[in-house]
Amino acid sequence: xxxxxxxxxxxxxxxxxxxxxxxxxxxxxxxxxxxxxxxxxxxxxxxxxxxxxxxxxxxxxxxxxxxxxxxxxxxxxxxxxxxxxxxxxxxxxxxxxxxxxxxxxxxxxxxxxxxxxxxxxxxxxxxxxxxxxxxxxxxxxxxxxxxxxxxxx
Length: 153
What we know:
The chain has helices at residues 10-21, 62-66, 72-76, 81-89, 101-105, 109-125; strands at 5-7, 30-32, 35-45, 51-58, 90-93, 129-133, 140-144. It is of the alpha+beta class. The protein has a three-stranded antiparallel β-sheet. Strand 6 (129-133) and strand 7 (140-144) form a beta hairpin. The protein is globular, with a radius of gyration of 20 Å. The relative contact order is 0.14.
């Protein structure tokens, strides 16, 4: 499921309609981002030994959070919930597009922890930025947790 949704606030609709009625330009619509790129800290190693680090995660739906609760593996071990849930919302890791619980199980623990935090950030907070403070100079700034190459922010 890949889609971008256009939405307007009530003010934009009113301003846009009024401007269009006067022959003026309508306000530009904002795009709701439904997919977010990421870079795994270590990377997924496939059967041939290829390391895949970049990937895409989409926003979760209510169904994505409900369906895993009916999974027998989750009923037997509640810790497995995150594996099933992450496998539903990650659409690609490197060139691997068939993401299933087995792929997520084979990730390094640090990569699974990264994806769990990434999931929380994009679904609960709506972005991948985090506010940080430099320990040396106390300067505050934002970093993008979607990541880049190691050492980049």
